[in-house]
Structures are given as structure tokens and as C-alpha cells.
Write a structure and sequence with these properties.
Structural class: alpha/beta
Shape: globular
Number of strands: 9
Strand order of the largest sheet: 1-2-3-4-5-6-7-9
Helix content: 25-40%
Length: 348
């Protein structure tokens, strides 16, 4: 039976822009968190691609990864993920080939098929919603650019060809699970905001997995929100920032990261409350011991090989403390840095 302490832990960051803050402050906060996460023994530090969302600064994901990798020395840094329908696979291979050349042995490439924005944003990116249908072919093309170039090959990724850049498939449904299994790639499930198909997707992935040159057996990463503080009450208060962000998202009005509030009752309707709590039910909120118990439960029911945690916390000091508490109860300071991949937690 797996426990939280038995599996590596990592960080997912969106470089959140606080209400009244700036992207520059968000990037400084991300680098500071990454340096602390490295010192606390976290295995990976991933940033995610989103576009046209006022509270998220990590749109130019490859650039942010370079910023984080350049300011750290050991922790693996990567994308969680690159939204491949927005890009040419060649361009992504070149970008991550560049990163892998600058920071050898430290770069991960997670890819997903969501656009990372709405229809208008997709059009502004010169991509169209139909392009998500080509996602499997795009992943195969991306993989091909990291192989050793063949004699006479017309198009090569320079840099990129022949480099070891582990590719992960990210998903929140069984589509990504099937693709990751077919291609023999590690799979990360976005249960921190879309938990509905978590168990079904993991079962499909494990049942259908085909070994590949990258991976001999299934390898699953599960994502969770973790809001840890010195007391349960303070953690629950910090958690209201995420609750407000999800509420704004379902209302179609995403914005900058808001400060926490003492109570949410006056801010949402009963229907909205139910929807928000359903979306972020894979959340461990509380003191260190409370968080440990809830993450033990998550590790047990998912049998995850890795756990990645995220926290949209308004105050940077409180955000650091949350990740520090998670590392303390995990005991991660005694763990080696990962190699390249060989309120309540509601019942899942």
C-alpha cells in the first residue's frame, strides 16, 4: 500500500499574478519558490501554458522554464504542459532541444491537447479547434524530431535531434490515457481541477500500456492542490483564493489571483459552490498532519508513482510555507533528485 512518503513529489506552478501585482513579480516569485523547492527535495518543477488569462503569467512557457532552470542547479524543470495544438512540433522540439542543451539531464516535456484558452485566443494563436484532432500525430512528429537524424533527412530539429528529452502525456480524460498507453509514455492526470475521470483514465492507461524505448512499464503522476499552514483554520482561509479563482472561471470571468477571504458564503450560490467544490475536490487543506493523512489517502487510492502539487496562494510567504510543510511531512529532504523517468479531500 503506497503512502505519500513513498513516492516522489514535485511542484506545478502557473506563475500566478496577484491582484495588484505584475508578471515580473510573478516570475520572481516562481524562481524563489523553485529555489526553495530544490532545497526541500522536490523532484520536478513544472510550469503550465495558458493564454489570455489575467492571473497566469506562464504563457511563454519555454521562456519561463529557462528562467527557472537557469536560477536552479539540480531540480528537473519542465512543462506541465505545452499545449501542442498551439504549436508546430518542430518549434517545440527546437525549444526543448535548446533547453536540454543548456541544462542537460534536467528538462521534461509534458504535452496536452487543450488550447490553454478560449476560441478567440486559439484564433489569435493562428490555431483552430480542429487542430486538437491531430494531437496523436503531433506527438509522434515531436518524438521523431528527438531521434537521431537520418542521412538525407529533409527537416531536423537543431538543437533537438538525438537529445534525451522525456515526453509526458498530460490529460484529464481517457483520451490522453489511451494515447500515453499506446505510445508507452508516462502519464500525468490533471486531477487538481478535473477529477471526474481520474480512476477510469488510470485504469485504461495501466491496462493498455505498451512498453517503449522511453518506458518499460506504466508510470503515473497525479496532481493535487495542497494548501498547508500551521493550523487547519489558516489553511482553509488560504484555500478561499483558489475557490474564488475557480468561481470566476466558471462564470467566464477569470482574473488576477484574489486575496483570501474569511468566508465564501456571500460570494457564491449553492449551485456554484457545488460546482467549485466538485472541480477541486482533489485538494489537501490543513495543518501538516491533516495534509499528510489526505495525501496518504490519495496515494493509496490512485497507486500513483509520483505526486505533483500546486497551490494558488496569494501571499508569497504563506505559499512558501505551504510547500515547506508538505516537504516536511513527506520527508523529501532525504530523497535524491529525480532522474528522467524510468478543506478536505473528498472521497475519490
Amino acid at each position: 500500500m503506497k503512502r505519500f512518503r513513498d513516492i516522489p513529489i514535485s511542484v506545478l506552478d502557473l506563475s500566478p499574478i496577484r491582484k495588484g501585482g505584475t508578471p515580473a513579480e510573478a516570475f520572481a516569485g516562481s524562481l524563489d519558490l523553485a529555489r526553495h523547492a530544490e532545497s526541500w527535495g522536490y523532484d520536478r518543477y513544472w510550469v503550465a501554458e495558458h493564454h489570455n488569462i489575467a492571473g497566469i503569467a506562464s504563457a511563454a512557457t519555454s521562456v519561463v522554464i529557462g528562467h527557472i532552470a537557469g536560477g536552479t542547479s539540480r531540480i528537473r524543470v519542465g512543462a506541465g504542459g505545452i499545449m501542442l495544438p498551439n504549436h508546430s512540433p518542430l518549434v517545440i522540439a527546437e525549444q526543448f532541444g535548446t533547453l536540454a542543451s543548456l541544462y542537460p539531464g534536467r528538462i521534461d516535456l509534458g504535452v496536452g491537447r487543450a488550447p490553454g484558452g478560449d476560441h478567440a485566443t486559439a484564433r489569435a494563436l493562428r490555431r483552430y479547434m480542429s487542430s486538437v484532432e491531430s494531437f496523436p500525430q503531433d506527438v509522434l512528429e515531436l518524438q521523431s524530431f528527438f531521434l537521431q537524424a537520418s542521412p538525407g533527412q529533409a527537416v531536423r530539429a537543431i538543437p533537438g535531434a538525438g537529445l534525451d528529452v522525456p515526453i509526458w502525456v498530460l490529460g484529464s480524460s481517457d483520451f490522453g490515457a489511451r494515447l500515453a498507453a499506446e505510445l508507452g509514455l508516462p502519464y500525468a492526470f490533471a486531477s487538481h481541477f478535473a477529477p471526474e475521470q481520474l480512476h477510469a483514465a488510470l485504469a485504461i492507461y495501466r491496462d493498455r500500456f505498451q512498453p517503449s524505448a522511453q518506458l518499460d512499464e506504466p508510470h503515473v503522476m497525479v496532481l493535487a492542490n495542497v494548501f498547508a499552514a500551521d493550523t487547519d483554520d489558516e489553511a482553509r482561509r488560504l484555500f478561499t483564493t483558489l475557490q474564488q479563482m475557480i468561481l470566476n472561471l466558471i462564470r467566464g470571468k477569470p482574473g488576477e489571483m484574489p486575496p483570501p477571504v474569511d468566508a465564501m458564503d456571500s460570494l457564491w450560490s449553492p449551485t456554484e459552490r457545488a460546482q467549485v467544490l466538485r472541480m477541486i475536490r482533489v485538494s489537501a487543506v490543513g495543518s501538516g498532519e491533516t495534509v499528510r493523512k489526505k495525501l496518504d489517502e490519495l496515494a493509496e487510492v490512485t497507486e500513483a508513482d509520483e505526486l505533483m502539487i500546486t497551490a494558488q496562494i496569494f501571499d508569497h510567504t504563506a505559499r512558501l510555507r505551504s510547500f515547506e510543510i508538505a516537504a516536511e511531512v513527506h520527508g523529501s529532504t532525504a530523497r535524491p533528485v529525480a532522474e528522467g523517468t524510468a478543506a478536505s479531500l473528498v472521497s475519490l
